Every structure is written in structure tokens, then in C-alpha cells.
Prior knowledge:
Elements: E1 5-11, E2 15-22, E3 29-32, H1 36-49, E4 52-59, H2 66-84, E5 93-100, E6 103-110, E7 116-119, E8 127-128, E9 131-132, H3 134-147, E10 150-157, H4 161-180
Parallel strand pairs: 3-4, 7-10
Antiparallel strand pairs: 1-2, 2-4, 5-6, 6-10, 8-9
The structure holds manganese (II) ion (MN).
Amino acid sequence: MEHRIAEVVRNTKETKIRIRLDLDGTGKAQIRTGIGFFDHMLNGFARHGLFDLEVEVDGDLEVDCHHTIEDTGIVLGQAIREAAGDKKGIRRYGSRILPMDEVLVLCAIDLGGRPYYRSDAEFTAERIGMMDTEMVREFFYAVSYSAAMNLHFKMMSPGNNHHMAEGMFKAFAKALDEAVSYDPRIHDVLSTKGSL
Length: 196
Ligand SMILES: [Mn+2]
């Protein structure tokens, strides 16, 4: 089977970003965003989604982490959309309830071509390492509109903020892996419209 790969480069005055995504990888990651905790999250996303992922970001961290994280979400969403291609034969929907110690988080996605983001995750700390916790929402919101996917999170059991963020990234990885995976019974695009 041919690997579904996308490489996206985006350069602005605030950030320079290159992402290469292989949806049919094995979980190899090379991540460098300049934000340690964010690297940790993207590594977990690649590893647990079994995607091969290269992320190089040169962002205006002298301002704060906002542009770097939001723009990485925009580019990752674009890479997901491009790599998924015409979406023929894929399951389209994916979901996962993922535990991380005391935390339990649900992620559900639909690669149906329309963006929507909803999450009830509320963090109690302002920051995890050098990453502002409010950027978790900004990141996933950017991914959802840029990939044109419905993306929902339910924080079923909140707890340690590191566990909450990491649980969300891993649940997203598992849900996306399912949504882009092939079902041999689906020969065309899984939609009554005929296209996604
Ligand atoms: Mn961790």
C-alpha cells in the first residue's frame, strides 16, 4: 500500500514551520518546536497514533508560546487534510476513551469536511512547563478547522494537568488513527453525498 504523506511549509513573520506527516507510519517522530512540553505532546501524538511525524518550528517565543503552538496546529491540520487525500475507503469516524492514571478523557472525530471544535476540558494550572494550558484549546481548535474535522473532547475525570493534556493528545492520536484507517468493506467515500 502506498503511504499517505503530506509535507507542508508555512512561513510568516511570526513563525516558520515545516511538518511532514505519514499517516501510514510506525510512530517515528522528530519534533523541535522550542517548547519542551509541546514537543512531549507531539511525540506522544506520533507514537500512539503510529504516524511518522517531523515537526520543525522556529517561532517568536520571545513574545510567548501562542503563535508557535497555534500555527503548528494550523499546519498539522493542513497536513492531515492533505495526507488523507480523497478519503476513499477510510472509516471517517474515530473515537477513544483514554485513561491516564486518575484522568479519563474521551476524543471523537469526524473527517467529514466540516470544522467543529468542542471541549469541556478545564485546566487548573496556568502553565505546564513552558506551555500555557489555554494553548491546548487553541492548538486543537486550529487543527479542527484546518483539517476540516469535527473534534470533540470530554474530560470525563479531570486531575493532574500534565495528565489531562497528555491524555487529550494521545486520545486524539488514537481517534485519528481509527478515522484514517481502511475498512475493507468501504470501497468509495463513506458518505451518502458521495464526497467528503
Ligand atoms: Mn508526560
